[in-house]
Amino acid sequence: CGVVAATGSGVTEWSEGDEVYGLVPFTRDGAAAEFTAVPAAHLAATPAGLDPDKAAALPLAGLTAWQGLVRHGGLRSGQRVLVHGGAGGVGVFAVQVAAALGASVTATAAGRDADFVRGLGAEEVIDYADEDFADRLSGAQAVDLVFDTVGGDTLTRSWQVLRPGGVLVSIVAPPGDSGPDGARGVFFVVEPDRAGLEELSKLVAAGRLDPPVAQVFPLERTAEAYEELNRPHRRGKIVLKVS
Predict the structure, then answer these.
(1) Maximum Cα interatomic distance, the chain, rounded to a whole number of Å
(2) I need a surface site. Which of 8, 21, 68, 88 has the fewest CB within 10 A?
(3) What superfamily in CATH does domain 73-187 come from?
(4) pLDDT below 70 — which residues of the chain?
């Protein structure tokens, strides 16, 4: 998230002074800096009225949720969705996006985060420490789509709660192929996506998506910010701010 300082030759969609946000490709380094070079096609206009800290928190996790649910999961209104890690850095966006698109959302989370995750749009929250999600969502309660941010045994056992023809999407590891008839598994890595950012901006404008920010660090405290990322049970994103 920032302001265009200069444009390269042939760039027509952006001008100096435009407020933009986007995902820097993983093939590039240097986003934690005062200036960075980004392909023009990877940027979108910053959502009007959105706090810059929240705008900075949106592209990586927001696009991960959008691409997983919509592009790879084929989410449709009225479907049942399970989000593993509903209070996590990506889960908080997946819950909001799925609910905004008309899905009935169940999420797993720590018990202390249950009210927070319900506030994001989850109709049900399963405390993973006290209840087995596979027991709660078996049979008639099975879901159309699982969005996994946890991996391990949680990912493997998620096949048990899918309906025939359902989709298991993971950002942690390939899910394999152990589901019911017609079910499929998808593993993906998020990529820059202007169209996806524009869809997320629409949800922000409609009041359906609010990027939660846990803590903001000045650029000179970048190392401390990365250390904070390793601490568990943080609600929201860590943001680096260039003064």
Answers:
(1) 58
(2) 8
(3) NAD(P)-binding Rossmann-like Domain (3.40.50.720)
(4) none
